[in-house]
Specification:
Number of helices: 13
CATH architecture: Alpha-Beta Barrel
Order of helices and strands: HHHEEEEHEHEHEHHEHEHEHEHHE
Largest sheet: 8 strands, parallel, barrel
CATH superfamily: Aldolase class I
Number of domains: 1
Shape: globular
Distance between the termini: 41 Å
Bound molecules: flavin mononucleotide
Mean pLDDT: 95
CATH class: Alpha Beta
């Protein structure tokens, strides 16, 4: 693989590097969070509140990262999370990201409000993809989208549950941000379709049944769960996986760090269904901690868009590879050769001696 034209050494510095390329309103839309951004900050801080119980003398050499989920083979437990409007940072939009995810060897989440329509993105690469579903107030259109996702070969449906209304994103209002009409909301001539684009504010447990009944047997993942009580309800409604996420701090400001939520939800789920985790991952060490806390797979958000802005598919691949390399180092140094070893590694809560984190 060719090296990206912009050099970077970790994912944290990507925002600064990409800032010169992305117009301010779009950068704010991507980078910033809701309200006072307490949750956005907490998403990072929470990782630093636990440490890894390092084993030496394990004799382990080399790491096995290969992961499977719902029949898809992943090179590492790292996927690209669903995000709207990749076209804000690259002319080939989601298609370019799709090519990167496939070249790297992982899953791509494709948003309902992607810049391109779901068929275009599906056709852009051979890699497996999940369709992230937002329910609008138009149930006929919701049904149509789910059927189209199945027909286009998507491997699972991710129902995002934490967007019953847009979060309080002050920066977007201040910038009078105007986002282009998403591809799925245009007709075949590229004209905006006359339908109600608003989110369904009444999204509830029956929405899970609705999605399941129109997605032709595809696995159903509910995204945006942060509490054990919601995890329990979702399990009772037969979801196939749970994605613990607070939308990268873009929705409810004041909700706990996603990593804290992961630890609570994992205690409730106890391995009955796969757990996907996102919000705040910037280091291979974060991936390690997420898996040790019970995640099976993590999803990456903003850094992917920065990589896309900096160098298209090569930039996105470099982002994923950087995380993987860091994860490999942490695994080697903590004596974990496999993901099962990572899962068995205790996390120590800072300030509580050697007490394992709950
Ligand atoms: C610009 C942007 C657009 C997003 N659009 C969506 C979306 O359409 N659907 C969705 O479920 N999540 C969306 N998300 C949330 C991501 O899937 C994910 O939860 C979040 O970005 C993870 O946090 P991170 O950016 O700190 O890695 C979006 C995030 C960003 C940054």
């Amino acid at each position: 693989m060719r090296r990206p034209s912009v050099k970077f050494f970790n994912l944290l510095e990507l925002e600064g590097l990409a800032a010169g390329l992305i117009p301010r309103p779009a950068l704010d839309y991507i980078a910033r969070g809701a309200g006072d951004e307490q949750t956005l900050r907490e998403n990072r801080l929470a990782f630093s509140r636990v440490l890894v119980d390092q084993r030496v003398l394990s004799g382990s050499t080399g790491q096995t990262l290969h992961t499977q989920i719902f029949g898809s083979q992943l090179r590492a437990p790292i996927m690209v999370g669903a995000m709207a409007h990749h076209g804000l940072v690259h002319p080939s939009a989601e298609s370019e990201t799709a090519r990167a995810a496939a070249a790297y060897g992982t899953l791509l989440g494709v948003s309902t409000v992607a810049m391109q329509n779901l068929e275009q993105i599906a056709a852009a690469s051979k890699g497996d993809k999940w369709f992230q579903c937002y329910l609008t107030r138009d149930s006929g259109f919701n049904r149509e989208l789910l059927q189209r996702a199945h027909a286009a070969g998507y491997k699972a449906i991710v129902l995002t549950a934490d967007v019953t209304v847009g979060g309080n994103r002050e920066h977007d209002r201040r910038n009078a941000l105007h986002l282009p009409t998403p591809g799925n909301f245009l007709d075949s001539e590229g004209r905006r379709r006359l339908l109600d684009l608003s989110f369904d504010s009444g999204l509830g447990l029956d929405s899970l049944d609705f999605v399941r009944s129109h997605s032709a047997g595809l696995p159903l993942i509910v995204k945006g769960v942060t509490t054990p009580v919601d995890a329990r309800a979702a399990l009772q409604h037969g979801v196939d996986a749970i994605q613990v996420s607070n939308h990268g701090g873009r929705q409810l400001d004041g909700s706990p760090a996603a990593f804290e939520s992961l630890q609570r939800v994992a205690n409730e789920v106890r391995g009955r269904v796969p757990l996907i985790f996102d919000s705040g991952i910037r280091r291979g060490l974060d991936v390690f901690k997420a898996i040790a806390a019970g995640a099976d797979l993590v999803a990456i958000g903003r850094p992917v868009l920065y990589g896309l802005a900096l160098d298209g598919r090569h930039g996105v691949q470099a982002v994923l590879e950087q995380l993987e390399q860091e994860l490999r180092i942490v695994m080697q140094l903590s004596g974990a050769g496999t993901l099962a070893d990572v899962r068995d590694t205790p996390l120590l809560r800072i300030g509580s001696g050697s007490e394992p984190a709950g």
